[in-house]
Amino acid sequence: MEKLHDFQRFIDAEEKIEPKDWMPDEYRAHNIRQISQHAHSEVIGMQPEGNWITRAPTLRAKKILLAKIQDEGGHGLYLYSAAETLGISRDEMIAQLHAGKAKYSSVFNYPTLNWADIGAIGWLVDGAAVTNQLSLRRTSFGPYSRAMLRICNEESFHQRQGYEIMLKMAKGTPEQKEMAQDALNRWWWPSLMMFGPHDNQSARSTKGMLWKIKRASNDELRQRFIDKTVPQAEFLGLTIPDPKLRWNEATGHYETSDINWEEFNQVIQGNGPCNKERMDHHKQVHAEGAWVREAAAAYAARKQEQLVEV
Amino acid sequence: MTTNQALFQYCLRLGDTNLILGHRLSEMCSRGPMLEEDIALTNFALDHIGQAEALLQYAGKLEGKGRSEDDLSYLRNVEEFENFRLVEQPNTDFAYVIARQFLVDVYQCLLYQKMQKSSDETLAGMGSRFLKESTYHLRHTSGWMERLGLGTDESKRRIQQAINDLWPYTPEMLSVRPYEKELTAQGIIPDAEEIALDWLVQVVRVLSRSGLHKPQDVVVPPPSTHSDHLVRMLAEMQYLQRTYPDARW
Ligand SMILES: [Fe+2]
Ligand SMILES: [Fe+2]
Ligand SMILES: [Fe+2]
Known about the structure:
The complex is a heterodimer of chains A (310) and B (249).
Chain A: H1 2-12, H2 25-44, H3 46-50, H4 59-84, H5 90-98, H6 116-136, H7 142-170, H8 174-193, H9 205-210, H10 218-236, E1 246-248, E2 253-255, H11 261-271, H12 275-288, H13 290-309
Antiparallel strand pairs in A: 1-2
Chain B: H1 3-26, H2 35-63, H3 69-74, H4 94-115, H5 121-149, H6 153-166, H7 170-174, H8 180-185, H9 192-209, H10 228-237, H11 239-243
Helix pairs in contact in B: 1-2, 2-5, 4-5, 4-6, 4-9, 5-6
The complex binds fe (ii) ion (3 copies).
One fe (ii) ion (FE2) is lined by residues 42, 72, 75, 151, 155 of chain A.
């Protein structure tokens, strides 16, 4: 009890918790869940965008997309390492993902149907991610906070590059503009869903806020993203797919229709358009790589033995 | 053939090889046996596409018809591509990806080492820039040759199989094109025959260190034309540019 009291005082003083510090089991579990989910999201997110690498329309576009996806893989690595400091291995985390016990962001369960989707993902999905991650730089667990610091700059860069693609498409031929609008229509709502359920529906929010793992509520972050993004869509000359969208002079915020929570729940439960495809891909690649990982391990063990013998 | 025309052909050959190899590697994105390797292969893809960009841009300039590196990449037909046949071979499994890359890495390291000393300033600059990248690639793939060759029975079997299957495409990579002779004599491009000799020595050294053997020399070489694989790759790569010719990306 005394320990828990000190722990809370420490957190309230905005100090960072480090892996070797005492922490409540629930704090540890909460962080493992959140950080591993974040890591899985980075890795699964490589698939929808990776889908267009081989069709990128210019060498420059191909290089930018490759570099972006490489960054996301790097974020995954970095986050897996942060979670490992809490006493879970990457293998265990991947096993949890495959067993459906660990989740990843619902947004990556949608297909990428045209080149403007690559723009829309950077602009909206990385844009939503960065809104969330900017606030997570102040999260109370040290390794997670530092990972966010490092990742945020890259995510902002991805967002600008995505917006640049949207700009080219929106100002391009009528067909390109159509692709841009189509991509916005399909990615707008999934991006808003990325922030999670409404605050009064979110079971974990309270403890997360008390322990300063989360630093802003789902609805606050979502509103921040909407207010920032609507004018950007206007600049592109594209229409946000929400007939009820309007500026509220009194509150200084945009008002929107409510999210289709039934769709959100379905995607979370594994019934989105691409859930099966994403997981099958990850499992298949993991299984196909087993012989390579075994060979690397066997070789490393042999080298170790040789060192001991000498 | 003028010197410029010959050099144009040469830059196409090197540029296309990088373009197609980079494309093959980019297909591996999200398909690596572990996340670290996924990232490494994506990184190699980026390097090769960057090399292709520079070489094809120079080719376009030499040709003098106003074609950009993108025009050359996205608007030529399969029979106009000059890449090594080796690099269009598919990513059958990780062993093929590594074996193909290793065979090319050895070649490119030797090539770029010599290219640094070209009397053509542009080529010399590219040589020293690309050499850094290829040296890193070769260190990485030689490491994997050894790990797979000396790892498990299965990995040894797979990497030997990949080397055996890809070996028939190496004479074409090492061959000297008729237009090269004059360029070599003028000190503009490296001597491909010298590269071929050094290449064999270096490849055999890594193979034997990895417990692998050099395949039998090729008696009947595969057809010198491109493969069906390349046709399919180009269809995918060129899809947007071909479908929307008026669009700017
Ligand atoms: Fe991301
Ligand atoms: Fe990321
Ligand atoms: Fe990103």
